[in-house]
Write a structure and sequence with these properties.
CATH architecture of the domain at 2-156 and 184-208 and 250-264: 3-Layer(aba) Sandwich
Number of strands: 12
Radius of gyration: 18 Å
Bound molecules: NADP nicotinamide-adenine-dinucleotide phosphate
Strand content: 15-25%
Helix content: 40-55%
Structural class: alpha/beta
CATH superfamily of the domain at 2-156 and 184-208 and 250-264: NAD(P)-binding Rossmann-like Domain
CATH class of the domain at 2-156 and 184-208 and 250-264: Alpha Beta
Number of helices: 11
CATH topology of the domain at 2-156 and 184-208 and 250-264: Rossmann fold
Distance between the termini: 27 Å
Shape: globular
Strand order of the largest sheet: 2-1-3-4-5-10
Order of helices and strands: EHEHEHHEHEEHEEEHEEHEHHH
């Protein structure tokens, strides 16, 4: 089976290339320079050439603060890009998988978000990602939206790697305690994606199980690394967060579980990731 992966230079893209590179799949990864998802002709030409069975879109403009000022760019990449991909995959009868985010929710709920909960994004990033979801679903019935959250993966810019780096030279790190979510290992999304290739299209929430605050996540990283660093809990306000994130964007695994798919707990995922980072020169 042939799989085109867009956004292949990003942290999730890199993980998917590794996971799908086996005897069952032929992987065709494209980074931004090779396939710009806002360029319809570019998409058409590549799909005509490869004729894949699946297209997985991990490409996005993911810098939440920058999206607030580069609004047009955010809507173009996160909103219109997925629409182009849905249109072109529809024409060629290719199954379309699009990665989305917990930030499509407002964060006002007190229990985990279900797939059928109404989105209510507050940030431009969340709004532009919601537009991408809506356009793709309205354009092509064979679209699968995978909402995930708080990603970390090898070779990526992410919270876990930032804390790891800071722990090498800081004695104190201030971390917000009033935002809750599900930290998720990119490798685990890949494992689930393989299983979703044969499931019905639609929206799925895919995140490591359980939830925590950024503060609790930082504490777990430091404790695993056995570093003598004091993690100071601060509110988002005290921290001076530029763009308010959802307070609570925990994704419910119910639908996934009812399809017989289960992800490991966030602490197990984190430990596995940190062990691999420490133990292998490959990472
Ligand atoms: N990171 C998270 O915590 C998180 C949480 C929830 C959901 N998600 C979603 O998960 C997906 C993957 O995220 P990630 O963490 O892997 O992000 P990432 O590391 O920022 O990767 C995104 C990739 O897309 C590329 N890109 C940007 N504009 C493009 C375009 N027009 N055409 C093709 N490629 C383009 C980027 O290239 P440049 O860097 O060169 O611009 C980057 O390599 C995204 O859909 C994101 O919204 C992420």
């Amino acid at each position: 089976m042939k799989i085109v992966i867009t956004g292949a230079g990003g942290q999730l893209g890199k993980a998917l290339i590794q996971l799908f590179t086996d005897k069952d799949y032929e992987v065709f990864p494209y980074n931004k320079q090779q396939l710009d998802i806002t360029n319809r002709t570019n998409i058409k030409e590549i799909l005509d050439k490869i004729q894949p069975d699946f297209l997985i879109n991990t490409a996005a403009f993911t810098q939440v603060d920058l999206c607030e000022t580069e609004i047009e760019k955010a809507y173009l990449i996160n909103g219109i890009g997925p629409y182009y991909l849905a249109s072109e995959t529809k024409e060629k009868k290719i199954r379309f998988f699009h990665i989305s985010t917990d930030y499509v929710f407002s964060g006002e709920k007190l229990t985990p978000y279900l797939e059928e909960d109404s989105p209510g994004p507050k940030t431009i990033y969340g709004k532009s990602k919601q537009l991408g979801e809506a356009l793709a679903l309205a354009t092509y019935e064979n679209t699968t939206i995978i909402r995930t959250s708080w990603l970390y993966g090898h070779g990526g810019n992410n919270f876990v790697n930032t804390i790891k780096k800071l722990a090498n030279y800081s004695q104190e790190i201030r971390v917000v305690y009033d935002q809750y979510g599900c930290p998720t290992y990119t490798k685990d999304i890949g494992i689930v994606l393989k299983q979703l290739l044969t499931k019905p299209s639609g929206i799925y929430h895919v995140a490591n199980s359980g939830s925590c605050s950024w503060f609790e996540l930082a504490k777990e990283i430091i404790s695993f690394l056995n570093k003598r660093v004091n993690i100071i809990p601060v509110s988002s306000k005290e921290y001076g967060v530029k763009t308010p994130r959802p307070k609570y964007s925990v994704l419910s695994p119910k639908k996934l579980n009812s399809n017989g798919i289960f992800l490991q707990d966030w602490k197990e995922g984190l430990h596995e990731y940190l062990k691999k980072e420490a133990g292998s020169s490959e990472y």
